[in-house]
Amino acid sequence: MRVTSRLLALCCAVVSAHSMAAPVSDLYKVREPVASQQPAEREEALRKAFDTLVLRLTGDSSSDQEAVVQLRNDPQQLVSRYAYEGDAVIVNFDPVTTERALRSAGLSLWGAERPSILAWWLGESANGSQLVGDAQEGSSDLRAAAQHRGLPLRLPLADLSEQLVATPETVTAKDPQALREVSERYDADGLLTVMAKQSGETWQANWRLWVGDKQTQGKASGDTRSVLADEVMLAVSTFLAPQYRVKPGDRAEITLEVLGADVERFAELDRLLEPFGARLQRVESDRLVYRLSASPEQLRAQLALARLQEVAPDEIDMQAIDAAGADAGVEPIGDSDVSAGDAEAQPSNAQSPLDEPGAPASEQSEPADQGTLLRYRW
């Protein structure tokens, strides 16, 4: 039996509720304000939407390549549809055409799978301080800013226990340990703290971000809370993008082995590896073997989103693994490679976590591994 595309789709739905990293919805959909529906105003809004999208996908607003300039001058060639909504135009860019055009222009792109960020946003005004919680006043501004900058944002519930912990002292602290403890329930990849103050007609904020072993901080200001939120999210996105975007010319051939996989984890890994064009080579019990072309450091950053742990070469007895694979009846995927996110991967035998009952074993010999070998496990 084969793991069909439908099964993979169902698995993705199951995994998405439990994985930390989150795919950004409507990544190629941009909302830009307009003063009117006149053609000149519309064309300018389309160019601004293109600039917003490029910044969202690259984290870099300084691109001046001739090919990018040409695309900016005529962004409608990348637009699948647009529609007016109130005082804004909603622009939907075609993902395939846009990605191909930007990669051809030499840009490094950041995929839709991104670190989920939990934001502890404390606003201070003449009436005191208030934690912005999920579905509370101010949350829509933060969500809109995160969407505009391509970030998967999570907000705390802001219940009584969290309000007691999220004080000006803990939100501005260099060590976020007090907030980390109450953040565990949200299982996010990154922690963002913001201390925002309203002074007259303007807002100002000091913010700090922790993602894995990296951290950064900064200041932002804006005439409104929504503008301030957008400035903060832009700074966060700009910091994260270089760690995850895939560079067209900075690639090496890599063989990736992942241990401890099951059907749900296979679906999650399938999404994470999609930006690298990964090709599943074989399945051996709970071991997946891929080939892909990528920067090793970018691949490591991407795999960290799924909490995968890199295994040192001397930690695994390869002879034991090969023997276990032989006993289990190792079966290659077939004569041709299977792309991550594509159709059907054929598991090794009926006892594999990725198998359906009755899957036959194969006598074919497995293909030789190529390039740099990276090994990970759950």
Automatic annotation (TrEMBL):
Residues 327-378 are annotated as: Disordered. Residues 1-21 form the signal peptide. It comes from the Bacteria. It holds the Pfam family DUF2066. Keywords: Signal. InterPro entries: DUF2066 (IPR018642). This is DUF2066 domain-containing protein.
